[in-house]
């Protein structure tokens, strides 16, 4: 079985390798999936670079990847919600960079027939973030007007659509080149951060501000946009100088959040959601290396997907 792994921490071209691995056994609670596509995520980049080594110990060679989609080829005796032959969406602890993966049954759901392999694989992590942030972290406290910073990114774009599906007024910011995309996703108002001051443009208008950017100056603008006493949620670092009274929250994965619940919600909304795909690359080591290098730079809006042919 072909898989793509890292042999150490370092640059993509130096540490990503192709390996042959023995298939894992499937116990009563697990499912084997032949993968058709997997996504490359920023978290994979951080793992490869060693940025997570203080929190997570890796045994090399380590197969990266949390998000994938494919066909069930074997099920454990306790699994009843999927069967052999079903097309499924997968969220794994690791190991989706390969031809197959074995995961707990609670980590997969059936893929809607109309959903492409690329969209199914690419939506997993950004959807889990968007859904759990809105549904569980904030819940009824979110308010009626929400600002999404970084609205053209994978998480930001799904946030815009999910919030609109809930009837919220959505304010959004992204670069000028992505304005058409963000407006098409349903944003009620838009500010291009590289053309105008989004903080001044939307000052004191949002019940909740969600900073889905990579950090930097967005925090300052976000605090300006948040109403006094509102919510400020960051996917990166919270502003160090919290100048306005509010509820400041960092969002991260939690064992309290159910993947099965969130992914089931995704399948229910999939016909209303658009995931921007930046590029689909073939199932080769060169593609995986290229995908990592693209994501490290300044990629176009959208996900990078590795897809098998056939």
TrEMBL record:
Start and end residues of each Enoyl reductase (ER) domain: 10-306
SUPFAM superfamilies in alphabetical order: GroES-like, NAD(P)-binding Rossmann-fold domains
Alphabetized UniProt keyword annotations: NADP
InterPro entries named among the record's database cross-references: ADH-like_C (IPR013149), ADH-like_N (IPR013154), ER (IPR020843), GroES-like_sf (IPR011032), NAD(P)-bd_dom_sf (IPR036291), Zinc-ADH_QOR/CCCR (IPR051603)
Pfam families: ADH_N, ADH_zinc_N
Protein name as catalogued: NADP-dependent oxidoreductase
Organism: Enterococcus hulanensis
């Amino acid at each position: 079985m072909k898989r793509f792994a890292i042999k150490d921490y370092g640059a993509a071209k130096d540490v990503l390798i192709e390996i042959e691995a023995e298939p894992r056994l499937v116990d009563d609670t697990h499912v084997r999936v032949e993968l058709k596509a997997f996504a490359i995520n920023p978290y994979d980049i951080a793992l490869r670079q060693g940025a997570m080594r203080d929190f997570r110990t890796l045994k090399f060679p380590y197969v990266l990847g949390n998000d994938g989609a494919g066909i069930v080829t074997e099920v454990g005796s306790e699994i009843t919600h999927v069967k052999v032959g079903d097309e499924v969406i997968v969220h794994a602890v690791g190991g989706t960079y390969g031809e197959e993966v074995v995961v707990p049954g609670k980590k997969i759901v059936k893929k809607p027939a109309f959903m492409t392999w690329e969209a199914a694989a690419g939506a997993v992590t950004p959807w889990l973030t968007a859904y759990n942030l809105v549904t569980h972290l904030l819940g009824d406290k979110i308010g009626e007007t929400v600002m999404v910073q970084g609205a053209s990114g994978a998480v930001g774009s799904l946030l815009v659509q999910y919030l609109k599906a809930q009837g919220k007024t959505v304010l959004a910011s992204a670069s000028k080149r992505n304005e058409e995309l963000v407006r098409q996703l349903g944003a009620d108002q838009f500010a291009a951060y590289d053309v105008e001051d989004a903080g001044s443009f939307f000052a004191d208008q949002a019940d909740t501000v969600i900073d889905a950017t990579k950090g930097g100056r967005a925090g300052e603008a976000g605090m300006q946009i948040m109403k006094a006493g509102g919510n400020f949620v960051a996917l990166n670092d919270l502003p160090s100088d919290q100048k306005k009274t509010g509820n400041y929250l960092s969002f991260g994965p939690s064992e309290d959040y159910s993947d099965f619940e969130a992914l089931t919600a995704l399948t229910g909304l999939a016909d209303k959601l658009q995931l921007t795909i930046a590029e689909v690359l073939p199932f080769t080591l060169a593609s995986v290396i290229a995908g990592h290098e693209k994501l490290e730079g300044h990629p176009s809006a959208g996900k990078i997907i590795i897809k098998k042919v056939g």
